[in-house]
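Lay summary

Proteins are chains of building blocks that fold into shapes. Our project writes down both the chain and a compact code for its shape. Here are two examples, one after the other.
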Amino acid sequence: MYRNLNEYIERLEAMGELLRVGARVDPVYEIAEITDRMSKTPGGGKALLFEDTGTGFPVLTNMMGSDRRIAAALGAGSLDEIGDRLDRLVAGAMSPKEGLWEKLSMLPLLAGAARWMPRKTGGRGECQQVVYRGTEVDLGILPVLKCWPYDGGRFVTLPLVHTEDPDTGARNVGMYRMQVTGPDTTGMHWHLHKTGERHYRAYARRGERMPVSVALGGDPAYTYSATAPMPDNLDEYLLAGFLRGRAVRLVKCLTNDLYVPADCDIVIEGYVDPAEEKFTEGPFGDHTGFYSLEDLYPRFHVTAVTHRRGAVYPATVVGIPPQEDAYIAKATEKIFLAPIRAAIQPEVKDLYMPPEGVAHNLALVSIDRQYDGQAFKTASAMWGAGQMMFNKVMLVAGADTDIRDAGQVAALLRGVAVPDDILLSRGVLDVLDHATATPGSGGKLALDLTGKTAPNGEVSLPEGLPLPPGAAVVDVSLAREWAVVLVGYRDASPADLTGLADALLDSGVRFIVAVDRAVLTLSPGDILWHAAGNYEPGRDTTLRGGILIADGRTKYPYREGFPQRVPNVVTSSSETVALVDRRWEEYGTGGFIPSPSERYAPLRSSPSAAVGGEGESAGQI
């Protein structure tokens, strides 16, 4: 596959998927604003190579942010090609082998698997051609991005963080953002549910320092594999080897005993000391489209920085979807569908995580339905499987439904019977879910769409719908297609929508959703993103006479049962927008693209990373 990012860049250029920016561009805010504009163009735009960053390193962004680029990154013509290959592999491995000939037929498969296993080699790798250690270490040589105005600092956003279980020696390669806090220190943002955190606790029990090494760049299959929802104790470099068709070659780090890919671009070596007090990390404009707020995390001490000559610094920009991570999620849907069928739910036919759901807020699943209750059984099983445990809302449809076709899904939603087709549950949520009052856990909702058909006749709305107390407008624009009525609020009044529900009982409307008034000016996809992010099914759901009422508004941190802190939406400052507007022709990136931040600026509730507070009307625009 690719020996370094330069080889991948050459491939992208040959495909017409790369734009080079020769003008001097600042890693603080400017690169992120340009990338945000590009990534939100239809189809994900182009990858961007910023050649002059004021450091010795170019910056590559949006490198996997299109269907063509994510497939090329994983060595395939399309993501379907990878999914089909894994389907055949799993089917061959799982099928019964009765005769000698069938057993012998597995030998090529076993030989192939052996070729994918990562291999340790002696000597130094290309990633160690240039070495800084001890007092020479200065992370300031790297063009680390600061993306958003209320970020707590510069963040490494595509790190491949290597740790080992001290008891078993099992390696983990995870992607945990790293806030640069000094020339030789960063934060290490591993969440409660992540493998890196589990290794950290194990070292704490032993009273030992934890060696950590961070790789950047190299074959993009490495970067994808670090994001993948691999089962615990299964090596991410085995997946990378499968995708590449050959083993990942590993070399020993210079200041600890961990191994990293010999052909990556940059390596940051060091340790985390569990005996050291955690420090305040963040805020950070996150992939949810909202800031993740300050919290306590371990500090990473850097003992060496090494890199190959001609290294490229890779970075991703996250924020309001769609961004590059939406295409990475597409790859995960295709690659992990076969293992889900084999190990968890054989009836699952397809899985779709729309970008507006930012991976964990919304998922659609199609199944081969055989009996009543199977949709809820599937949802419950998926909520207990790996990173699907973070899912908040799941729609389960029949195998004959194209769950990526909005029209087909809308027709099924019109046929939902409330409350019979509703499952409310509780469980694990992503730590970044800001709607729940208890970080990392909260309510879940599943809708059974199997066997549903759109009812005869259109949704029929009565005249003179009552305006709920505190509401500013009732929006019925989505009612006829989606059976959804939106109610826009301009303050923090309780969303008492029962009177409106009573007026709509015989209309065919199935859902009433309360949203911030400013959200109603956005596209349906943006409305879905904002409402899903602010919705906690256990607290924000009311079932009233055949209608599900959901409160998807910005929440109020001073009310009982609500989160103590509420994050703001992520947008660029007006100063950064104006700067990029003025310089656009200098970048050489084609026709002018307006800033997405101008569209989302009305959603900002305060000039900070957080909104609301004692006595403040959170959500007021």
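And here is the second example, written the same way.
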Amino acid sequence: MATSIMADDKTTEKITIWGIVQGVGFRPFVAKLAARQGLRGEVLNTGGLVEITVTDTPARLSEFLDALTSEKPKPAEIIHIEREHVPYREFEGFKISESLDGDKDAAMIPADLSICQSCISEMDDPANERHRHPFISCMECGPRYTIIDKMPYDRESTSMDDFQMCSFCSEQYTDIADRRYHAQTISCYECGPQLLYKAFGGEDIVGSTEELLSLAVKLLDEGKVIAVKGAGGYNFICDPFQDCAVAALRETKARESKPFAVMFLNAGQVSEYCEMSETEKNLLESSAKPILLLERKQVDKATGKENGPSEFKRSRFIGAFLPSMGLHRLLLKSCGKPLIVTSANVSGLPMVKDDDDMFALASKSKGLVAGTFYNKREIRVAVDDSVVRVIDGKPQMIRRSKGYAPVPLYVRALGQVPDKSTELLACGGQLKSAFALSKGAFSYVSQYFGDLDSLENMQVYEENVERMKTFFGINPKAVVCDMHPLYETTKYANKYASRHGAKLIVVQHHHAHVASVMAEHNLTGPVIGVSFDGTGYGLDGAVWGGEFLICEGGSFIRDAHLKYVTMVGGDALVSDAWKSAVSYALVHERGELVMCADDEFVVDITEIIAASNVTENENWHIVKEAVNKKINTVESSSMGRLFDAVSSLLGICHENSYEGECAILLEDAAARALKNPGGSEKDSLALKFHRQVADTVFKRCVKIRERDGINKVALTGGVFQNRVLTEMVLKLLRDGGFDVYYNISVSPNDGGIALGQNYIGMCLLAV
């Protein structure tokens, strides 16, 4: 466009910024920075971008941009900046102008931000107007994605629009020198959401915030379960030190034995019960406030006794996290101990976000839930807590959700940045589901939805597809899905493609797993993909899950796989580990385990079978007959089922009451053997098995490298959530000179395959 240079060589530029620049205090920051440097102009939201128009000398504008990128708010992320000369304009000072709809193609909605240290200091200050305010927030913290209705991000575009600002908040909101200048979630005791309470049976109890907090603490101390409305949905909360409270919670959620996450007041309190590195501490305290899987301290050094309540002893890990909002922090401080904080739902159903649904669920509990603490700020979308761990010294996502979604990942296909006309919907899998929408290089991976076995979960999934399409201005020209014909996501993809005239791309499950690693690390290939999990539909109709793939771009070759084993039980194999054990023992009995072709591999479990009493299983002969006659059987190369079988053969666990339980307890046994080499035979055999699997991975990768010259290895699949195995494999491969990659920003489990599908779709459309 035309440029006019006026007196003193001043010029006018329009600066466009892409990234996480809305809902993170970016416009107020820009205005304060410009005022500090004496610049004149304006800043505004336009669609999902920020535009700055400013007049000054080119040198001073460059200084302004340098300071803008180096001093930006912590939650902000700048992806790209463009500078453009525009016709000269005179401004009176610098202002934040009204937002425009603008270009929605590059919209980036911030994830929810946990309570910041400045707000914590105000909460703890008796002289502050927001002392102990449960819903305190500012420009750098508070709900974002969970309350937004549309872009651009302004108060009237969120559920905060229901709350009229008082004069006190309004004065801060309009004061450029105040840290709540243009803070869209600003509120106080007078004008914001207020804490309310409904007792079991429907009785409303009116009281001050302090009175209701005292009531909540009293109920928790009495061993009751309470429901509390968080930023992204309702939580059930109880005292983990009272077995009766935990039992009531398990009955309410229909959750038999899976460990619950535990919320702690601060990192110091966490360290009383968990081992914690500096990296883990930093992650625990990060703005996302994820649930962090930490190794439990087995023994209290002060007493010499086993550490913590019985609920903490269900696993060698504790899912620990810190409060992300003021209300939870107040409860923890008042109780003086950690609390179980878990999603409010019946297991397998969506997390509850609406007040009436919560009241109904509490009523159905028949008194197990004592009451509901809530507020009248509506939650637009339910987002569960993220789950993260540290492995290999780095954070790794186990469940990508609150605090991370829907921040996009930058994905290149075949090493190139896809054209922005490339718009895709990747539907993900059936379990631990998430989808991904992409436009150009930006892949928006959704929050976690859980398993899609229920109509309710599938409905929430479909609603969120439409919601995110609208937010990001994406109209998918192609839809990518798993090849399993019975997956709900596959059925949905077929209907979507037919209804919208979109191209349908079908991707093999384990190929998608490997591609998710390639997407994260920009690996163009060829890559050795080691994909180990429980179940995936194979090209030959068998159940795959112990796979070595050679992947490049959007294609793959199956190089080798765990030897097929005839297993009885179909879908019941996922829960009945003993059936896997019997199936493997029958193969061994026939002497077939040693007979394999070059594209198959075996893990020798002869010693484990010899040490077991599997033939004494009361169903041994029934299963044997079914296998021999191929009644309700499947051919399986699943590494996940092999881990289940070994867990059962060693007498560790025979049934999965939750996904992966048998394998998790097998890993715990191996971990004990690492720490105590002179322990039980059971633990020693568990560790030996892990070493055999790791050694098999290494040997196969060496063979492929010698043959094909490929040195890059991608480790993925749910089995690689096993820390003992993963760290063994990493060491062997690195010592052997391999370049090894694994999932970081998405999970190695099925929550990550949408990103892999997205990548494969991009590659195929680019060819």
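What can we say about the second shape? The chain has 21 helices and 30 strands.
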